[in-house]
Request: fold
Amino acid sequence: MRTAIVTGSSSGIGAAIATRLLADGWRVTGLDRAPPKIANPAFTSIAIDLSLRAARQDAIDSIEAVDALVHAAGIMRGGRLGELDHDAGDLLWRIHVDAAIRLADHFAPRLSNGGRIVLIGSRAAQGVAGKSQYGAAKAALTALARSWALELIGRGITVNVVAPAATETAMLVDPDRAVVPPETPPLGRRIRPDEVASLVSFLLSQDAAAITGQEISICGGASL
Reply:
């Protein structure tokens, strides 16, 4: 049975990805600070605050070799230039970028040949007023993915970013979003978490073995 690590597995996109992979026959280890909501014998949950480096490393060290890593954990904080919350910016970086680096650095040598890494990015990486810190953290994931894809291609390991537009999750109603209200894509609705999970499922499959170093958008027409 193939094994995957999914961060942010207790809700939103991360929960949808974990659920889809379990349905696909994967064994999944979820990393999240919130209690798990998935009841499945093939699912294991590890409580972890990805913003805390020491606690994060302890949890990572407890996991054996895997076939795939999906970093879906995330938060959104917004603010206009001149009024930015720098502590919030640091938190965004630690959860989105530094956690991705620590996880990949640990697990890449342990991934099976032909393994997979998928990072959940955002359309905000293209630039959105009031989301500069969040967008910068998400944009960094693409640079990481392209660099790691080059390093790992000789082992058949692919690294990609899935970048959805506004997705129907609890994060959209988080009061800590501050000044930035969510936008609805031109499609007329927000992206569904299961749509993101379906693309991740494909990227983890053998059918996607030739796709690596790419940022793939699920934008509902937002990029048109």
Observations:
- Strands lie at 3-7, 27-32, 43-47, 68-71, 116-120, 158-164, 215-218.
- The chain has a mean pLDDT of 91.
- Helices lie at 12-23, 53-61, 86-107, 132-152, 193-203.
- The radius of gyration is 16 Å.
